[in-house]
Description:
The chain is of the alpha+beta class. Helices cover 36% and strands 24% of the residues. The protein has 27 helices and 40 strands. It has an eleven-stranded antiparallel sheet. Strands 10-9-15-21-19 form a five-stranded antiparallel sheet. A five-stranded antiparallel sheet has the order 32-33-34-37-38. A hairpin with a 2-residue loop joins strand 1 and strand 2. The radius of gyration is 31 Å and the shape is globular. The chain starts with 5 loop residues before the first strand and ends in a 12-residue tail after the last strand.
Amino acid sequence: MEKCKIFLGNNEVITDKAKIVGQFVEIGGEKYYQIQNYHEMPDFFMSIVSDSDHWMFISSNGSLTAGRKDRNNALFPYYTVDKIHDYKGITGSKTYFLVDKNDKTILWEPFTDESQKFYKITRNLYKSIYGNKIIFEEVNADLGLSFQYGWYNSEQFGFVKKSGLTNNNKTAINIKILDGIQNILPYGIDYSFQNEYSNLLDAYKKNERIEGSTLGLFMLSSIPVDRAEPSEALKATTVWSIGFGENSTILVSNKQVNQFKKGQAVEAEHDIKASRGAYFINTQIELEKNDTREWYTVAEINQDSTDVANLDLFIRNSVSLETLIKEDIDQGTLNLKKLVSFADGFQLTNTDLCYARHYSNTLYNVMRGGVFVNNYLIEKNDFKLYLWQINRLITKEYQSWLEKIPDEISYITLIDLAEKTGNADLIRITYEYLPLTFSRRHGDPSRPWNMFSIETKTEDGKIKYYYEGNWRDIFQNWEALSYSYPEFIEGIISKFVNASTIDGYNPYRIKRDGIDWECPDPDDPWSYIGYWGDHQIIYLQKLLELSDNFHPGRLDNLLTNEIFTYANVPYQIKPYSEIIQNPKDTVIFNEDLNNQIKTEVEHLGADANLLKIKSGDQIYKVNLTEKILATLLSKLSNFIPEAGIWLNTQRPEWNDANNALVGNGTSMVTLYYLRRFLKFWEEKFNDVSINEISVSEEIATLFQSFYSFFSENVLLLDKGFTNYDRRKFADSLGLAHGKYRSEIYNYSFSGERSRLQVEDLVGFIKLSLKYIDQSINANKRKDGLYHAYNLISISDDIISIRHLYEMLEGQVAVLSSGLLSTFECLDVLNALKDSEIFRADQYSYMLYPNRQLPPIY
């Protein structure tokens, strides 16, 4: 269609589309990534971080949410991503200019849709490569003006908005300014109330300005409750400004915005009730040619009466506020860089994009998993606190031992001291002690079910050592961190295996003070129980390989050392006979056990989450060999030849988009990684100097039953598996593991031990590898790729297989398996380039093809 001119009344609408360009630039001696004309792109979402507990999630259209610590301590309302995009012009920065030019007073509203319709503008977005600053800029060629504002973090002052207006004209120009922030939340509002009762909440809001000061206070007249009791709001959100001195008028609402836009005068506001919080600076300036005028708006949450009084005095009496603000922002940037540097996040190359990407990857890794900030130095007081959090009985028993430890001690020395005590529980807890900080769950407005909490400092301002995250996120990030701090690798491995269960799985979440699992909640559609099938093998395997590379032989000592445990998660996998009937409903939640554990945690500590021996209250302890066997036999119990590992624990693998595979799906991805796992242990057991290893009698019995069954059916490896053979395998392995599970669920371990010959372990591994290799070869596709997941159908006495479309994770996993030769790996890589998951325009890959689903009609 031929392009035509569009008018709004008598005014022509500018419809030209500007070119989008990305590049690195330098601002104030710091490198930023600039996107020119970002407004031509669909709105996108960004995270702005800090060295402290600030959080900010901001749309490219300027709308945002921000606060400290968690979503219940918000400066701007915490909504989901779509709503934040929709709140453009409602939440966050807002600016209006009345410009005197050519005998006219011209209204300019930067960053609005109207601005780009009627002015020739260029918009630039700048984000610091350190991730803690963002700047929006609009250049108005018609008016000869440029306006920019940026968001910055300050530990002392809170959230800082820095604004600047530049005159690009050849003459001075008079400008009236109304600039500020909107939709400010007062103290005392949690996430749920804001989202469910926001209209009612507005009625409780009270906005004040302190006379003779730029300081605005945003409060609630009282905390909204539906109870017959007083509920005072004793804190406030504070907002203040510098840059215009006494020549400015301060508004604490947006009630007079339309008056300003009409050219009418506005009056200072002191007390506004039942209105959303807003803070605007109104002034008039004459801006000389090529000159820039800057000003600051500073906001902080949760300020009590003493804080407010001190802040008011500080604003009135300080003569270099701008310098103090800049210095604190710079200190925050330096602190953030130090945190990232602890994890080797600075690697300078001649490609800006590469080192900026490496920095950001490292930053987000340590934000999830945490970082060690004192190298291997341990603070005794924090170790004592940790020991108390985990096991109070051990803490009391070894009080004198703790007192003899120096105030600061190296991690390795601390482990040596613990080992000399001979107490297996103390040794285990010491291994698991990881003095990490800066960690938080990976919640954000795109994943509101993950409720983050940024715990970086104690009440007295010291470093708070804490970490929390979903299993997969924590251990993926710890894997990368281990390259920087290899002495903690065995401690991380201990944390991993001690939190795995007798049936070979792991809880949903790992944290400093124990483990956590999901509990059923019929009112929450995101509440569900089950085990992810991918957690156990590859994440552990990479840690094992790191230990073997950095510390050859150190794992050997742990193979027979009984300092490891089983997590007592209150999930029970149903008997095989019930699984085969309904493989989508397979996990029972033991509410009585859950309540019992929660009660015991209050008295004992996190060790109450661990399995106890059949007779007595002692924590049941085993060696690393048994923990590896429990995981391996669990996976093999769900091995369906030529199909993969059966996903029958009510959860998929890492990709939640594969939820539909649960019960009907099998994973070749995990089977590929299981091969890598087994090859590692084949080499390890071949090299050890011992001939036998003691394990629990129940594990030994299960091992022998699997070994015998695999040996009896070895002829199938040559002729292949029929649907009847596959069902036979599933029945035999599933029944054996079900019998083992049932015994432990009901009675725990007996405490009896059996000795396994190392040569039998090697023989079983070699035999298992033959079955796995046969299945891998059977899953090579005609296009040269390998199947990632398959579907199975169970009926009568058969299990049949149906293959799915190609997926990237299957290729990554098979390349990692170690089965393919160099040339076969090249064939897979070439086949990937020819597949539908290759994006030639990005020279990269999608997880799976962009498939067109059939219409519903």
